Amino acid sequence: MSHLYIYSPSGAVRDKAAFKRGVKRLQAQGHEVEVDAQALSSHTRFAGDDDTRLQAIERAAASGADVALISRGGYGLSRLLHRLPYKAIAKAIEKQGTRFVGLSDFTAFQNALLAKTGATTWAGPALCADFGGQDKPDDIMQACFDDLLQGQGEGAGWTLPKHDAAEKPFHLKQGQLWGGNLAVLSSLVGTPYLPSVKGGVLFLEDVNEHPYRIERMLTQLLHAGVLGSQKAILWGQFTDFKLTPHDRGFKMASVLAWLRSQVKAPVFTNLPFGHVPTKVLLPVGATVSLTAENREALVYWGHLH
To answer: Which CATH fold topology does 3-150 show?
Structure first.
């Protein structure tokens, strides 16, 4: 049994039924689920005002939990980056073994913490969307989450699309894994909260963003020197956007082709991570190895344990 701490550092929880289902499912799995006192607070679009959400993060760091799991993403953490208790969070990770897990807006927290302390967090599920849905949690996501709790997770493998198979075998012995939501990540450019990662493995995902906006954000990372300094780019799931007649054939594949024309690093697609049910867990800030051959790709961090 693991001790899980549920808190809301970003958007307000509107779907209370999903929240309750998620808690009950985790409890049914045998976990001790501790819910932050302000997890269901609401202030305009946020889960409480800035002070309320900052205090929730502080309580999560002090909880001694095995996992501090966000209720949902949204927006709000960018407002707190200059006030986060970085030392306390890093201490909770190093001394207490607390794993901070989340995605989407949580990208700001993860990369700021990496920039300030070098501490590793986990890109993974959120309570409401991934554990609280009408259907049972995705099997792959659940298995990866269980592996994290049991200390057994060593890597993530996936199948590359047939048209995107590796032209020749690729092997990166060592690189720092980092990234997350593209919109959030690009908003950190020019701030002290974007990690300076050279020779890294950058993973990206996004939701509700048209391909031209994806390309514009990638252009920002390109001109800031971020993309050119990576050893590999992992292209996750980019979902829930709509093309228009004005696009005249401009689509996500167009963005990928443009990206590959701009960087020397290989771009491996179809990473099972993003705003989708089937997602792996990824250690943000960890040293990993990466291999790709034909249609099989594997990012591996088992040597860390």
So the answer is: Rossmann fold (3.40.50)
* Half-sphere exposure (Cβ direction) of 226: Cα atoms closer than 13 Å: 25
> Which sign, positive or negative, has the C-alpha torsion 220, 222, 225, 226?
positive
How far, CA to CA in Å, does 134 sit from each of 12, 21, 29? 20, 8, 17
Element of type H or E holding 27: helix 16-28
Residues 6 or more apart whose Cβ sits within 8 Å of residue 78 = 105, 108, 184, 187
pTM of the predicted protein model: 0.97
Residues 195 and 206: their CA atoms lie apart, in Å, by 19
From the DSSP assignment, how many helices (H) and strands (E) are in the chain? 8, 13
pLDDT digits (tens, 9 = 90+) for 85-137: 999 999 999 999 999 999 999 999 999 999 999 999 999 999 999 999 999 99
pLDDT band of residue 199 (cuts 50, 70, 90) is very high
Please provide the distance, in angstroms rounded to a whole number, between the alpha carbons at the two ends of the chain.
20
Backbone angles phi, psi at 265, to 5 degrees: -65, 145
Q: Is 206 exposed, middle or buried (0-12, 13-18, 19+ CB in 10 A)?
A: buried
Dist. CA 297–CA 153, nearest whole Å: 16
Q: Which residues are annotated as catalytic?
A: 104, 205, 275
Query: Is the domain 155-304 a CATH 3.50.30.60 member?
Result: yes
- 6: helix, strand or coil: strand
Q: Say which amino acid occupies 47.
A: A
The mean pLDDT of the chain is 97
Give the C-alpha separation, 286 to 162, whole Å.
Answer: 29
- How far apart (Å, rounded) are the C-alpha atoms in residues 59 and 63? 6
Instruction: Extract the tokens encoding 215.
Output: 């390309």
Compute the residue count for the chain: 305
Domains in the chain: boundaries: 3-150, 155-304
Fold agreement (3-150, 155-304): no
